[in-house]
Design goal:
The protein is α/β, with parallel strands linked by helices. It has two domains: about 170 residues, 2-Layer Sandwich (Nucleotidyltransferase, domain 5); about 210 residues, ATPase, nucleotide binding domain (Nucleotidyltransferase, domain 5). It contains twelve helices and 17 strands. A hairpin with a 3-residue loop joins strand 1 and strand 2. The longest helix has 27 residues. The radius of gyration is 21 Å and the shape is globular. The model has no long low-confidence stretch (mean pLDDT about 95).
Length: about 400
């Protein structure tokens, strides 16, 4: 049997890198997040460009299409901040654990290269087509030995699903059919159907990612599920700029606290969020059970309509998992009155009045005409993307 390496799972975002030790059980059947972690914010590096200019997404996508990635000097300079931050975070954990070799899993946003080790398009940062190779070289220069090369860069959404499936306290364990919605800076979607993890990329013909869908006002559904988006809803209603809210540290928990003080803008925010989130969960339930009704428009107007038929038709969800910042909010005592109960009421009404769901589906989701609250739970996982990244690296190493 291969010697168990020191596993480092990394969640690389647009503003920081968050690295954690991931520990595996003796039989390899479950994982937990270790207490050791290192977080590096890009803006703390002296050569970070606050005025970094993105290459427009249409141009990025066009360059991918013609296999002609032309990095700008600004991208090359900014990418060095990422590489250094990753090296420093990994180095911290190597020193903390006195690891001889490390096995590294990395989750990153953006469109990946064909081999999965680089990034060819980014919405909030530089393109880095040689990302994994650059990190490996810097670790080698720092005297850090790798158990194996970085196999690929995964997405935080997929890694949330992997974490829920394999972590010791994961919400997908022993569940046949489940949907995961993680609300952090952005939104992560994950699925487990017929006992297997299903990437949204694998089923893009019949189900869309949350960030891809718009409501009737043209707003991305991500606005009502992500921490940044919900803050923006409160900002618009209250007339207080998001920059001012951030300066005064008014985030989800504080906005929820204001509702308890009868702040009308906060109460209106949670009413809006609850209604929109119920609509999204209803869409997931219907799409999985009886095919997409194409009730949402798309952020990309050229995206084709979703197929109304797929291989998982007639599947009922055993569990809906709410994770990341949104999941933590579910545990707030104030959430029940201002967020969760309105969400359940809205979802119950949508299912009761649905002409798409049959009696079998309605009887599964409704108990005494009310949505069965045992189906919706909050995730118990801390730093799910980093945990999933470490687990994926270990699975690839042991199955390779």
């Amino acid at each position: 049997m291969k010697k168990q390496p020191t596993i480092i799972g990394i969640d690389g975002g647009a503003s920081k890198v968050s690295a954690h030790i991931v520990k595996v059980s003796e039989d390899g059947s479950s994982f937990i997040l270790g207490i050791e972690n290192s977080i590096k914010e890009y803006h703390n590096y002296p050569y970070f460009q606050y005025d970094f200019k993105l290459v427009s997404l249409p141009i990025q996508l066009q360059q991918i299409q013609y296999n002609n990635i032309e990095l700008t000097p600004a991208e090359i300079k900014q990418s060095k901040v990422y590489y250094t931050a990753f090296r420093d975070a990994i180095s911290d954990l190597v020193k903390l654990t006195k690891a001889e070799t490390v096995l590294i899993g990395i989750g990153m946003p953006g469109i990946k290269t064909a081999d999965g080790r680089g990034i060819t398009a980014m919405a909030n940062g530089p393109r880095m087509p040689d990302f994994a190779s650059e990190i490996e070289q810097r670790l080698l220069d720092a005297g850090i030995a790798l158990t194996a090369p970085i196999s690929k860069l995964g997405s935080d959404a997929d890694y949330c699903g992997i974490g829920e499936e394999y972590a010791e306290n994961g919400a997908f364990r022993s569940i046949e059919n489940a949907y995961y919605l993680g609300g952090g800076t952005g939104v992560a979607d994950a699925l487990k159907l017929n006992g297997k993890l299903i990437s949204f990329d694998e089923c893009k013909d019949w189900i869309a990612k949350t960030w891809e869908m718009n409501d009737e006002n043209g707003n991305s559904i991500e606005m009502y599920c992500s921490a940044n988006g919900i803050q923006s809803v409160y900002s618009e209603l209250s007339g207080i700029s998001q920059s001012e809210l951030k300066e005064n540290k008014i985030y989800l928990e504080q906005i929820l606290g204001l509702a308890a003080k009868d702040n009308k803008f906060s109460i209106a925010t949670w009413q809006t969020v609850s209604k929109s989130l119920a609509g999204l969960l209803f869409e997931r339930i219907c799409t999985i059970y009886c095919g997409s009704q194409n009730n949402y428009s798309f952020v990309n107007p050229n995206k084709p309509q979703l197929d109304s038929n797929h291989t998982f038709m007639n599947t009922l969800l055993d569990r809906i998992v709410i994770g990341q910042r949104l999941g933590f909010l579910f545990k707030n005592p104030l959430a029940q009155e201002y967020f969760i109960q309105p969400l359940i009421n809205n979802l119950s009404e949508l299912i009761r009045k649905s002409k798409s769901l049959d009696t079998r589906a309605k009887s599964h989701y409704l108990k005494s005409d009310k949505f069965d609250t045992k189906i919706i739970i909050s995730s118990q996982l801390h730093e799910a993307p980093a945990l999933g990244a470490g687990i994926d690296a270990w699975l690839n190493f042991n199955n390779g």
